[in-house]
TrEMBL record:
Domain of life according to the entry: Bacteria
Alphabetical list of InterPro entries matching this protein: Aldolase_TIM (IPR013785), DapA-like (IPR002220)
Keywords noted in UniProt: Lyase
Pfam family for this entry, one: DHDPS
SMART domains: DHDPS
SUPFAM superfamilies listed in its UniProt record: Aldolase
Family the entry assigns: Belongs to the DapA family.
Full protein name: Dihydrodipicolinate synthase family protein
Origin species: Microbacterium gallinarum
């Protein structure tokens, strides 16, 4: 059977004054733990990691491992502009018991492929016996990862896969053709669980599934059944949810507020949904919520 992991990218909750809402974040973790999804992606883009300091990182990783660890895999994102900073976060997370990690390529300044390899070599060495996903997101990081570079990164002893965001299915297929068998590819495109699988991916890292996991689970089950009508129906539901919530953390948090899970907002400069958007969020919650 084709592997179709659903790994939930989890938002971080903040108070209106910008301070960390630790209890609200714990509530989100508890909610996600009940989703039935295979894993959690903590403190990635959806978690607003660029706005998190080391003390907050420690608080959130501890809470995630506590609330999610018994229910699903927990992949802790440690990517930073420099290997020095990323390694520091690896050490914090390892002390708390984390064993699975992801790291965005170094970002902001232009780097060579050799510099990217050196960065991941240092992060890999710090992780030791744990596992590491390369996080490829050139539209945010400014750093391209060629199939040849990803193949080179796959030679590092604990690099087991890559999370790929905002690249085409053709680019995903090019990665698949280049990397070794057994190397895991996750797409960051919420709606492409099935399509990305056909291009060689083993699953999706989905922020939208942190709010409404049901349509994603239904799509995976439909794809496993091979029933075209069931797949089409399930894909339509996923497309509807993604069109309303998308990769928009402010909308995700509006949904949490509506569901009574957490009252938090975003810390980063994201636009709050207006009344019409709230109405659409309420619609999909009613249609697809449990």
């Amino acid at each position: 059977m084709t592997r179709r992991d659903i790994v939930t990218a989890i938002p971080t909750s903040f108070h209106p004054d910008g301070t960390l809402d630790a209890e609200g974040s714990r509530s989100i973790f508890r909610y996600v733990a009940q989703s039935g999804n295979e894993g959690a992606f903590v403190l990635g883009t959806t978690g607003e990691f660029p706005a998190i300091d080391d003390a907050e990182f420690e608080t959130l990783v501890a809470a995630a491992l506590d609330e999610l660890g018994g229910a699903m895999r927990v992949i802790v994102h440690v990517g930073q502009p420099s290997a020095f900073e990323a390694v520091r976060r690896v050490r914090i997370a390892k002390q708390l018991g984390a064993t699975e990690f992801a790291a965005l390529t170094p970002y902001y300044l232009a780097v060579t492929e050799d510099a990217v390899f050196d960065y991941f070599s240092e992060v890999s060495e710090a992780i030791g016996d744990g596992t590491l996903f390369v996080y490829v997101y050139p539209k945010r990081s400014g750093v391209e990862v060629s199939p040849e570079l990803l193949t080179r990164l796959a030679t590092l002893p604990n690099v087991i896969g890559a999370k790929v965001s905002e690249l085409s299915l053709d680019e995903l297929a090019a990665y698949r053709a280049a990397v070794p068998d057994g190397f895991v590819l996750y797409t960051g495109a919420d709606r492409e669980l099935v399509a990305a699988g056909e291009a060689g991916a083993q699953g999706v890292v989905s922020g939208v599934s942190s709010v409404l996991p049901g349509p994603f689970r239904a799509l995976a089950q439909a794809a496993d059944s091979g029933d075209p009508a069931a797949i089409e129906q399930a894909q339509t539901a996923v497309d509807d949810v993604v069109s309303v919530i998308g990769g928009d953390m402010a909308r995700m948090k509006a949904a949490y507020r509506s569901m009574g899970i957490a009252d938090g907002v975003c810390r980063m400069a994201l636009v709050e949904p207006d009344a019409s958007a709230i109405a659409e969020i309420e619609r999909v919650l009613a249609a697809y919520g449990s």
